[in-house]
Amino acid sequence: MTAPLREAGSFRDPNGHIYHHQGRILRTVNESAAADYRRLRDDGLLALLVSRQMLLPAAEVDPDSLPIPGAAPVYLLEHPRLPFVSYPYEWSFAAHRAAALLHLDLHLLALEHGFTLSDASAYNVQFIGARPIFIDHLSLRPYRAGEIWAGHRQFCMQFLNPLLLHAKLGINPQTWFRGQLEGIDPADLARILPWRQRLSWTVFANVFLQARFQSRAAGVDSAEQSRLKQAQLPASAFRNMLIGLRDYIAGLKGSDARTTWSDYAGNTSYSSDETARKQGFVAEMVAAVRPEKLIDLGCNTGDYSKLALQAGAASVIGFD
Question: What is the pLDDT of residue 224?
């Protein structure tokens, strides 16, 4: 029997890894995470998140049924294969905002059940169609009373700050994000945001104050660092922080800056007859092939992507 192959990008988390095996997607749960996983499962939070379509489903399989190279997992989970894998630096403003809101909604629900998230990586969110879904089960762990939000800075760098670049400055963050895969640093964003943005408590606290603390932290001695690590954050304050960010992000609007393709639907090289023939060709081809996944390269305003879905394509991925 061929051994499962570990996903190359799954290497950071000591609690478990992702493997591919004959079309199956598997996740190991190591001894270090087994107790937390049992609590999550037995509490019912995992099932609840799956039922609300917030978390990718997982089924336990016998860990002895497959030869996992170099691993002796306590649990082995099997996930459905995602139709397409995307990355935060590829997302549109609307997709990025939807991913941020999912992350916050999931975290708030987890807190209600006595759990939290160990990080706030945007790479833990994928999309099924236009719907975001969380994929990292091992990021969920029991909440410890008084603990601070460990993923706060990461959330800002990978969710809030790219959204602010787009909404407040009209700058597409994708190129910046591709060149800095951990996200957009608060210190960098603080240098270019207008001073008037300090009037927003959310921006002031999560960008300007973070940038200031980051600068001061460079000169903090080990005793001070130890004291800061023991800081307490009441559960109510933790929850209010998440709610405040959620309300703010839900209200953000993308830049209305015009692009090359803003008038594409009404200003193309096609005559009305040619447009009708193209629409007919796409609809006829899709109806005949019935593709599970269709890629629309140069999708512009997405009109033909929508047409393909209406004609019977199971899913369409639009690139522009």
Answer: 55
